[in-house]
């Protein structure tokens, strides 16, 4: 089951700046080999369900080990059975409607 | 790793009424033995990480098998290492602040 | 436009315990006269669009004035034009599918 | 109050393809003059609170008028009082941690 995911990780108990912790998760996605793109409120990640979920779990574990005593992640998970679709396909589909009208 | 989760499952391609599909996921949480409570925009589920995530995956698989060609789930995942906390603890903590002030 | 909303408010820069801040928002919803119910990962609120959004804005303003330097809210907003529906209707609809099967 | 927002609009009752409806919201953000960037699971929008929220309301109204009988939006709203920050600042902050390590 191929999944398109969006994840925003919010560690707390580590002060106002969360960017070093977000960077740790980025490295985990990088090392996982999964396609991923960061935006202003999270990161798009895509791949097989079990691999994507393993990366999410590793992210929570790593941040806890690095001192974040409390973590909340906000995740969107999309699966479909009618056809294959990548994250890029979704964006291209909307953009084609914008330029054609 | 104990996790407090909130999940809202949105199947599409099956008409306006999604309640029969939401009910399928409720049954999966019921059969999983995980503590769970439904609210107006999702369901709170708590338990060990792997068990909770297995239920989420089973929910997507079951809904696809039942005709939903596209599913998007919106999930909140909370973990903490400083102390044990249940979903009920969180609610009680806020309510105690409301009554004491 | 009648709206069913779910809101989870996450203040940061105020330590690990966020329950006193969540309680402040609960009081705002209480004083607004809007129907609202707290759950383990947020609060369901329903009413007219402008009134609901005014309460959300007041919540951010109040928490900033109380010392939260950074606030992130996660909000779900549902509107529909085919029929009237309350939050309770949604829950009852799923529960009827559970008991009838 | 300056706000960084992320919004994913999910219309239903209009078939599987939601991209024409997502494109309508993109045009509203475009016409509003607000800074905005689309990603695979939504759109980052930033600006003054009232202007951003007016665009969200207009998006729901326009989609209903275009035939979507039911709309659910998933929104993240970030405000902070300690310093000015744009969406681009957030991304740059994480990227600097990635390259420096």
Largest sheet, spatial ordering of strands of chain A: 2-3-1-4
Termini Cα gap of chain A: 34 Å
Structural class of chain A: alpha+beta
In angstroms, what is the radius of gyration of chain A? 15 Å
Largest sheet of chain A: 4 strands, antiparallel
Which percent range fits the helix content of chain A? 40-55%
Task: Classify the beta-strand content of chain A into a percent band.
Answer: 25-35%
- Summarize model confidence as the mean pLDDT of chain A: 93
Order of helices and strands of chain A: EHEEHEH
Regions of chain A with pLDDT < 50 over 5+ consecutive residues?
none
- SS elements, strand count of chain A: 4
The gross shape of chain A turns out to be globular
Oligomer: homotetramer
Describe it.
The structure is a homotetramer of 101-residue chains. The first copy, chain A, is of the alpha+beta class and 101 residues long. Helices cover 45% and strands 34% of the residues of chain A. Chain A contains three helices and four strands; from the N terminus they run E-H-E-E-H-E-H. Chain A has helices spanning 19-32, 49-65, 87-100; strands at residues 2-12, 35-39, 42-48, 70-80. Chain A has a four-stranded antiparallel β-sheet, with helices on one face. In chain A, helix 1 (19-32) runs antiparallel to helix 2. The longest helix of chain A is centred in the middle third of the chain and has 17 residues, at 49-65. The radius of gyration of chain A is 15 Å and the shape is globular. Chain A binds chain D through residues 4, 6, 8, 16-17, 19-20, 22-23, 26-27, 37-42, 44, 46, 74, 76, 78, 82, 87-88, 90-91, 93-98, 101, and chain D through 4, 6, 8, 16-17, 19-20, 22-23, 26-27, 37-42, 44, 46, 74, 76, 78, 82, 87-88, 90-91, 93-98, 101. Strand 4 (70-80) of chain C pairs antiparallel with strand 4 of chain D.
